[in-house]
């Protein structure tokens, strides 16, 4: 057969498959009607397993591929049934009743001290707020839990250092709502107590993360690098000591705050050094024009289980922007997954998908739908 002839045959097969697929989807609709009358759940895992085993064993060398194809069809069939049955009533109600923004956002918990990068991100989002500073991420969640803070701001990832694992663990533990996000361009400068030639600086102090983000400059200038609890703490210490030959690596904001002189600007290794921050709240708020959705769930230890969830995002035309997996402490190598994607929950297809996943996946939580300042 020539290439054209084979392709002609493929076209004929596709034509023949389509009405069967549509007929199968119609059957799924009819099943949904009966399930509604009899109060049965959409998912019948045993029946699906039996279908997959039968198909897999009949498909010979393409057993794996056939299972995949049928598993996909069953995912679509369940998605259809969930939307017909209006699954996830509780989640639908929570989304419908969510406010647009908190009535009270006066006290916001964040990391560090005045002049920290978290403080800068906070000012970017809430210029007229009162920051409450904490020395660790757990303290921020605890402050939101106790009501000491109205909201909490946390760094979640850096363009060069990657995700902040500890923050994702806390997000998964508390499952508070995410109501806003922002990205801060992190630019480090070298700042000293007096206006001096940069070559006179021999020792620099900063947070280890900042020191590593400036490693090229430090090595090139043969500087002695010493760690501090934060970039702002380093700036404060340099201001107090008023000594020659030492400097802090910190933000321009921190240098100004502690009245230091900037001896060298932009000393970070990459010019595109960005950190993403999120804002957490005990209550759900969904601002108008929200374009980012976050959720989490866990998955059974089964071949293709993550693939099957991701396929449903693809089928709904949704674009994933982040996926993170964290081990569940009390289980052996079982994982919680955290997902970010672009979308708005007031879009029917998106809401239907969330409600379907809410019904089907263990430990599922919708975390929020918010705007993200880039
Ligand atoms: C169609 C049904 O609903 C679901 C979808 C299935 C399918 O597409 O074959 C099988 C079992 C259920 O999880 C059903 O219960 O038969």
TrEMBL record:
- The answer to whether keyword Transport applies is no
Keyword Zinc found:
no
Q: What are its GO cellular component terms?
A: cytoplasm
Pathway assigned in UniProt: Metabolic intermediate biosynthesis; prephenate biosynthesis; prephenate from chorismate: step 1/1; Amino-acid biosynthesis; L-phenylalanine biosynthesis; phenylpyruvate from prephenate: step 1/1
Where is the ACT domain positioned along the sequence?
A: 294-374
Per the record, the domain of life is Bacteria
Catalyses which reaction(s): chorismate = prephenate; prephenate + H(+) = 3-phenylpyruvate + CO2 + H2O
Q: Name one GO molecular function term.
A: chorismate mutase activity
Query: Where does the record say this protein resides?
Result: Cytoplasm
Q: Give the enzyme's EC designation.
A: 4.2.1.51
Q: Where is this protein primarily located?
A: cytoplasm
PROSITE patterns from the xrefs?
ACT (PS51671), CHORISMATE_MUT_2 (PS51168), PREPHENATE_DEHYDR_1 (PS00857), PREPHENATE_DEHYDR_2 (PS00858), PREPHENATE_DEHYDR_3 (PS51171)
Pfam families registered for this protein in UniProt: CM_2, PDT
Taking the record's annotation, the residue ranges forming a coiled coil are none
Q: Which UniProt keywords apply?
A: Amino-acid biosynthesis, Aromatic amino acid biosynthesis, Cytoplasm, Isomerase, Lyase, Multifunctional enzyme, Phenylalanine biosynthesis
* An example Gene Ontology biological process: chorismate metabolic process
Q: Which residues form the Chorismate mutase domain?
A: 1-85
In this chain, the site described as Essential for prephenate dehydratase activity is at: 275
| Residue intervals of the Prephenate dehydratase domain | 107-282
Q: Which InterPro entries match?
A: ACT-like_dom_sf (IPR045865), ACT_dom (IPR002912), Chor_mutase/pphenate_deHydtase (IPR008242), Chorismate_II_sf (IPR036263), CM_dom_sf (IPR036979), CM_II_prokaryot (IPR002701), Preph_deHydtase (IPR001086), Preph_deHydtase_CS (IPR018528)
Its biological function? Catalyzes the Claisen rearrangement of chorismate to prephenate and the decarboxylation/dehydration of prephenate to phenylpyruvate.
For this protein, the record's NCBIfam families field holds: PRK11898.1 (NF008865)
- Record-given protein name: Bifunctional chorismate mutase/prephenate dehydratase
State the taxonomy lineage. Answer: Bacteria, Bacillati, Bacillota, Clostridia, Eubacteriales
